[in-house]
Amino acid sequence: MIQLTSLRFSEKQVPSDSFHFFRVWTCLLVVYEVLTHFYHDFIKTLYIDPAILFPYLSWLKPLSLGGMNAVFILIALSAAAVAMQKFYRISTWVLVALFGYIIFLDKVLYLNHMYLLWLILILFALMPKVGSKIQEGWLQVFKLLLGIVYFYAAVAKLNPDWVFRSEPMYSWLSDRDDLPLIGWLFAEKFVAILFSFSGILIDFFLIPALWTKKYRAPAFIVGVAFHSFNALYFDIGIFPFLMIAAMTLFFDPDWCPGWMKGLWKKHFHTLGANVKGPGKVIWVFFAFQILFPLRGYFYPGVALWTQDGHAFSWRMMLRSVEGRLAFSIVDPKTGQQWLEQPRERFRGLALREVCTNPEIILQYAHFIRDRYAEKGIAGVKVFAISGLNLNSNGDKTYVNPEVDLTQVKASDFYVNWLMPYPY
């Protein structure tokens, strides 16, 4: 275990087989994501076609279609190189930089599992090449990261909607009541209650159970069943497959079958042993991962409503939302008014996020202000006409319609221009 009293990871040398499996599998998932983007033409539809992107950093801009294609190709090539530990130092940091660019390019596309994947890639970059042995401390690093993710996911579920109303679970399950054989069960409230409380218990206790040898095997079975169900019935991408692979890190380091060990021996064992363990920078990494998700609990208001502290905090699968949004633009000099309808610019996921994410709503309002200024109409006021149905609680006015959003700074620490939580 981690020596918490001295803040040190174990320096014991152990077989590296399980880590090689995890690294190769993780990199294959990255390659799969790239292939999916090309196959479904996502690069064009997600990054080129939208009239507006909403980056986390204002200076981030999308490249041309050819440039974005090149970025994704380089991501796949770098992931393959990291899997095989070729040009390791360069390929890991190239992968981290390009994958991070994709993540931070548009808030509309934020996904917790893509952020987690990026953090794992950062840890790969901080590691040396791994040969036949690995310091046990590195395995503990990945286990600790998983523990943080599951813990904060569990704490976030301790909200009234999840605990007392089984929402949004009930809404999601009842939408699948047309499935053969078991669909009728999903329309029953008690099933949603069962799933909701099971989710809390699994998030709280799965990682501690995996870390305990006595309960490791049954915990792994529960974890595989849990993530397999999520993969089948919820559209959450590669996350279940990443988590199932990550859980194998809790088993004995040499658990891999013989044919797999043969592959690792052929390609990686010639590197010798990994004698370098986690350095002090790892504790900086974990200090951020522990403290940053806490910010949402110190902001005023209800986080489910304001989304303050939502991103990068493992607040997963907590909101089922339907939104409506329009902007009233007023020229205070002439009194002339215009109406901007997001549905004329966005479709699908992008439209939903634009109508329901306060940060994006504010960025959109500032975009409108700047666009009118470019047309020679400076100083317009922008007001939102909005509504939000959060977790089937009913449509309520979302943005304060009397607030001129051009006067709200994007750098404000928390959202204070929404209507009070109405439920």
Short summary of the structure?
The chain is an alpha+beta fold. Helices cover 52% and strands 8% of the residues.
Describe this structure in words.
With 423 residues, the chain is an alpha+beta fold. It is built from 17 helices and 6 strands. The strands form 2 sheets. The chain has a 4-stranded antiparallel beta sheet with strand order 4-3-5-6. A hairpin with a 4-residue loop joins strand 5 and strand 6. Helix 2 (42-48) packs across helix 3, helix 3 (65-84) crosses helix 4 and helix 11 packs antiparallel against helix 12. The protein starts with 12 loop residues before the first strand and ends in a 27-residue tail after the last strand.
Task: Provide the descriptors you would attach to this structure in a database record.
423 residues, alpha+beta, four-stranded antiparallel β-sheet, two-stranded antiparallel ribbon, 17 helices
What's the N-to-C terminus distance?
Answer: 44 Å
Helix/strand/pairing category: alpha+beta
* Major β-sheet profile: 4 strands, antiparallel
The backbone outline, from C-alpha atoms, is globular
Poorly predicted runs are none
Q: Could you estimate the helical fraction of the residues in percent? A: 40-55%
Count of beta strands: 6
- Count of runs of 4 or more consecutive helical residues: 17
Strand residues, percent = 5-15%
| Overall pLDDT level | 92
Can you list the strand order of the major beta sheet? 4-3-5-6
**What is the alpha-carbon Rg in Å?**
24 Å
